[in-house]
Design brief:
The chain is α+β, with helices and mostly antiparallel strands. About 30% of the residues lie in helices and about 20% in strands. It has 3 domains: about 130 residues, Schlafen, AAA domain (Methyltransferase, Cobalt-precorrin-4 Transmethylase, Domain 2, 2-Layer Sandwich); about 60 residues, no CATH class; about 160 residues, 2-Layer Sandwich (Heat Shock Protein 90). It has 12 helices and 17 strands. The longest helix has 17 residues.
Length: about 375
């Protein structure tokens, strides 16, 4: 790290990626800091600096001792072990600092040798205690997928059997009745449930009324006058429930009836063109339903304002995906079982091309990956002219 960059970091203070330590004497404490960075997006621990950014420096004896302490903490106090790098930095030919660079972990979740999962909380760290939060740590490692989790007691008796029969015939080319194995075994073989119980995928795609047991997995839609949610009134509001195919169609309908038809150069008797192309909306709504984080008990939200349409999904972009990545066509499947069925139920292809297609159809789209709020937002800017 260059001195100018280091001084800028010290002047800005601690944040979620930079931690200051005057000195370190405890391997367990250091291990906990490393666990928090590894479970997040990585970061740097700068040793020889007080909490307020004042440089105090380290002695040569400190340097030797700390390098051994860092090695021990990374291998013995972080599970699984990590490999941080260190850099000794000489400031003004007098004071020496150690910079410990802890990368984002590739084997999440990490814990200390007491079994505690630590996560970053702004400039500090905290224990991950809720079941959902620990599940998301396992999810980031690819060891656990929410779409395979039990659907809160929904069983194969809760399936819309006629709808499922039609899907089965379309997907496999033969009727459900011709299967020579028990029905619950068929459900298990399709990764839609186990032991007579449906998982999230089975319930959301084929359940008669999944919102009875999964009330958070709906879409809350609202159309508001003006440009903020602070209005006391709304033009239209709806809680959109049912199986995923129905939610998809009803959401598109809600958005479109609250947008304008643009006459343009068409004749007076024409119906006009949709203000935002339906295909662009289809791509984004389908992506929201397939790729949202189902470990988070919250609905997708759809807001129509005078100047924009917002589609807000629970869960920020998974793993190391960035907005620049998805604009380039990269993808990371958060719900692989759900995605494997979606292309026969929704206009979803699974190629990572949905964002590109939506942008090609409508250029005024913004994306917001809110890691602190744990949401991903797509904003369609409306042409007010």
């Amino acid at each position: 790290m260059e001195t100018v960059e280091l001084m800028t970091i010290l002047a800005q203070g601690e944040d979620s990626q930079h931690q200051f330590k005057k000195n370190i004497n405890n391997a367990e404490s250091l291990g906990a800091e490393m666990v928090a960075f590894s479970n997040g997006s990585g970061g740097k621990i700068i040793v020889g600096v007080s909490d307020d950014g004042e440089i105090v420096g380290l002695s040569k004896d400190d340097i030797h001792r700390l390098n051994q302490l860092i090695s021990n903490a990374a291998s013995q106090n972080v599970k699984p072990a990590i490999n941080p790098t260190t850099q000794n930095v000489l400031i003004e030919h007098e004071l020496i600092l150690i910079i410990i660079d802890v990368p984002a972990g590739i084997n999440k979740p990490y814990q200390d040798n007491s079994g505690v999962f630590w996560v970053k909380n702004g400039a500090d760290k905290r224990r991950a205690t809720s079941r959902e939060e620990i599940q998301r740590l396992f999810q980031a490692s690819g060891l656990l997928h929410a779409d395979e989790s039990p659907a809160n007691g929904l069983t194969i008796a809760d399936l819309d059997l006629d709808y499922f029969r039609e899907f089965f015939l379309k997907r496999y080319g033969e009727s459900l009745e011709k299967q020579k194995i028990p029905f619950d075994q068929t459900i298990q073989n399709m990764n839609l449930g186990r032991d007579g119980l449906l998982n999230i995928t089975g319930a959301l795609l084929f359940g008669k009324n999944p919102s009875v047991r999964l009330p958070a997995f709906i879409i809350k839609a609202g159309c508001f006058p003006g440009t903020t949610l602070t209005s006391e009134f709304y033009k239209d509001s709806r809680d959109i429930q049912g199986k995923m195919a129905d939610i998809f169609q009803q959401t598109l309908s809600f958005i479109q009836i609250n947008l304008r038809q643009i006459q343009g150069e068409q004749s007076v008797n024409s119906l006009g063109k949709p203000e935002i192309p339906r295909l662009a909306l289809e791509e984004i709504v389908a992506n929201a339903l397939v790729h949202r984080d189902y470990f988070i008990s919250a609905p997708i939200r759809v807001f129509v304002f005078d100047d924009r349409v917002e589609i807000i999904s629970p869960g920020h972009l998974p793993n190391n995906l960035t907005i620049e990545n998805i604009k380039a066509g990269n993808s990371n499947t958060r719900n692989p079982v759900l995605a494997s069925f979606a292309n026969q139920i929704l206009p979803y292809r699974g190629y990572g091309s949905g964002i590109l297609r939506a942008m090609s159809l409508y250029s005024s789209i913004d994306f917001v990956d809110d890691k602190d709020g744990n949401t991903f937002k797509v904003v369609f800017r409306r042409n007010l002219q």
